[in-house]
Specification:
Blueprint (H helix, E strand, L loop, with lengths): L1 E8 L2 E8 L5 E4 L2 E2 L6 H12 L6 H9 L4 H17 L1
Antiparallel strand pairs: 1-2, 2-3, 3-4
Helix pairs in contact: 1-3, 2-3
């Protein structure tokens, strides 16, 4: 699955491309991004890209860290979202 997100804000064009068939490729403005090494962070990015809109944090934490206590899962989700914002 390849997902290309392009937004037009003023004169600037911003592009994020996710290639998910085979090895995951994340391209920002056409350049590879290698900052997301953890698989669950990658899975979170793909899930959010494929399912735009609002998401319940408890549900996201349960999807990715359902084997952990809820407080620990939510802490992992907060950290993963922080890492995504870094990219």
């Amino acid at each position: 699955m390849g997902v290309d997100f392009t937004s037009f804000g003023g004169a600037a064009t911003v592009s994020l491309t996710l290639k998910t068939l085979g090895r995951l490729e994340i391209l920002w403005q056409g350049a590879p991004v290698h900052l997301l090494k953890m698989r669950k962070n990658q899975a979170l990015l793909i899930y959010l890209a494929a399912n735009p809109g609002l998401h319940d944090r408890s549900r996201l934490a349960g999807l990715l860290w359902g084997d952990l206590p809820e407080a620990h899962a939510r802490r992992n989700l907060r950290h993963a979202l922080w890492k995504l914002r870094q990219v």
